[in-house]
Design brief:
The chain is mainly α. 83% of the residues lie in helices and 0% in strands. The longest helix is centred in the last third of the chain and has 35 residues, at 154-188.
């Protein structure tokens, strides 16, 4: 029997990202070396959970309607929370942060429009790439600050900026991909 409810193992794994967002923000804003290492550990678990939840759902036949909604919501809440702390710490430019937030809000609305006009909008490959690139950038940034503290060399700061820029560009590309997909779907319907 296919579970339809909220309380499945994959959904519990997904909930970790939602719950972990608060302590991660607090640890990142605290900024002490120990806090950054703790945040990095929680973030690595969150990134692993993002891949594991879907695999567990498919492997054990626990794919649910709740999980299909909860997973992208948890991803957005978690990653935007981490980028919020980055912006608060001045680890990333505000314009990059705003693109990250704008993409997640816009894709949420695009999903609603798609549901009304053409049916459920499946996860796009661009969204998966966005998640991977954002996750790598976040871990690199926190890892660098945990390792070197605030005394990062200009070279390290430049490479972190490049990683965040790449994450921002992939995020913007993902928004365009989702928008074009919904637009084409509505035109074809």
């Amino acid at each position: 029997m296919k579970p339809l409810g909220l309380w499945t193992l994959p959904n519990a794994i997904t909930w970790y990202r939602v719950v972990a967002a608060v302590p991660i923000i607090l640890l990142l804003v605290n900024g002490s070396n120990a806090a950054l290492w703790a945040a990095l550990g929680l973030m690595i678990v969150a990134e692993v959970s993002d891949g594991v939840d879907g695999w567990v759902a498919r492997r054990y036949g626990q794919v649910s309607a709740v999980g299909k909604i909860l997973d992208p919501m948890a991803d957005s809440l978690y990653r935007v929370s981490v980028f919020t702390a980055f912006a608060a710490n001045r680890w990333m430019p505000v314009w990059m942060f705003l693109i990250m937030v704008w993409r997640d809000i816009s894709v949420s609305y695009l999903r609603v429009v798609a549901e009304q006009k053409i049916g459920t909008l499946a996860a796009r490959q661009s969204g998966k790439w966005k998640a991977v690139v954002q996750g790598i950038a976040q871990i690199l940034v926190v890892g660098a600050y945990a390792w070197w503290g605030s005394d990062l060399s200009p070279d390290v700061r430049w490479w972190l900026w490049v990683a965040l820029l790449l994450a921002t560009l992939v995020t913007a590309w993902s928004l365009v991909d989702y928008a074009v997909t919904v637009y084409r779907g509505i035109r074809a319907a």
